[in-house]
Amino acid sequence: MKFIVCLVIFLITLFNGMLASHIRGGYIRVVSGNGSLTYKFEVIGFTDTGSSVGFGGGELDFGDGTIISLEGGDATHETILLGNETSLTKYTISHTYQAPGAYTVRVKEFFRNASVINMENSVETPFFVSTQVIVDPFFGANSTPELGVFPAVFSRAGSRFFSAVGSKDEQGDSLVYSLAVPLRDFAEEVYSYRWPNDISFYAGENRGETPVLKLDKLSGQLTWDTPELAGEFGMAYKVIEYRKVDGEVHKLSETTVDLQIINVESDMLPPNIDFDYQVVSNGRIDFIVGYETLAADSLEWSFYSSGLLNWDGADINGHQLTDTIAGGAGFNGFVALPQSAAKPIYFVLAARSLNRLNPFKTVKSFAVNPTGEEYVINAVGHPKEAVILRTYPNPVAGTMTIQFPELNEVKVQEIELINAAGQSILKTGIPINGNLATLNTEDLPGGIYLLRTSLGQQIYYSRFIKE
After folding, report:
1. Cβ atoms within 10 A of the Cβ of 328, count?
2. Which domain of life is it from (predicted)?
3. Nearest alpha-carbon partner for 138 in 93, 99, 175
4. 3-class secondary structure per residue, 237-283
5. Chain centroid to CA 259: how far?
6. How far apart are CA 127 and CA 184, in angstroms?
7. pLDDT tens track for 224-277
8. What single string gives the DSSP state of each residue in 67-81?
9. How far apart are CA 206 and CA 431, in angstroms?
10. Contact, 367 vs 218, CB < 8 A?
């Protein structure tokens, strides 16, 4: 009997471990609906290929009361092997909000992968990420940032580690980065979290200074003095997106990214990257780049700039260079800046050895401000919550009645109609009788429309269907 009980306990433990040991990191990306209230959502998870369990067993909360199961819903998904013992699984689904507003999109799933050193019992700790986004046609099309570097990388134990978590933004909005503690639920941190540079991980090492762990707020450059202790370290960071509209800076989104760094003992060394630059004028930055290995390995490298690249005097009319070199090499060129050079220009340099036994990749990023001054985001505006106007009938075929709040002496109110593609198709003033107005919709094509108006500092919306 005792043997049977022990066997059952063993099998349960083994089964839970098989189900649990898989999630390394991930994030949620919200993709623009071209100014409409329909968005595409990409839930991206990075999993340990040593586990037979895939990503997608959790729930997606759109922040408006709608919650779906990723696997059991209408989301499509794809899985890609990335190497570095990691695979990417992306679930994609569309969702339409009933009104503009600030929404927090969340996903929670069991479990993280086992044996993460700097958190307690990671194998039974939920994985949780979120993205806060402003849904409002007033700001036009907006997609949250897309991750530029996969969040599961190797570091060499006992050395300085360089990587970059910089993201790409389709609309060119300003991005600011900060370190964060991984979460197990909304506003709940993982159990007993310790930062990867906690001195307890460096026991017995002769270190005269506190180990470095920092994330540059503008370039997304991540630097870490790794301990000699090998293993997997979990961490998280936030990407906050800002946009200037009508002279005022607004916070549009805040994305939390969960990632993992695998610290390994190795005789191999990561490649070296050198970068130097000079701001020649407000329309040009000259640069010099060098890549090298300490061994005779060949390198695969890439060089990205948010400005247009000119390489060795030849205009390539693009933003990225890639090549393979033997040993070490360098090149020079310049970047042509956009007309508005008030914001920093971003450079991302990456290199990895083509020696299949060398798992290390070096990524460095830089934010160069052409004005030579510190780039500061302040005076951030906070969009007000949308208030819904009553419109009837809805759906409507002909004349629609709009019920406004108490307007006092207002006799004419300006309204704007936005179609499903996010295009403004009509701006007009309509007469007010008391707090009611009518709008003839007979000439509108059938479809979904958004009616927008403002009273003082408050924005009002109504979503209606034209039959």
Report:
1. 17
2. Bacteria
3. 99
4. EEEEEEEEECCEEEEEEEEEEEEEEEEECCCCCCCEEEEEEEEEECC
5. 12
6. 5
7. 999 999 999 999 999 999 988 877 888 999 999 999 999 999 999 999 999 999
8. EEETTTSS-EEEEEE
9. 78
10. yes
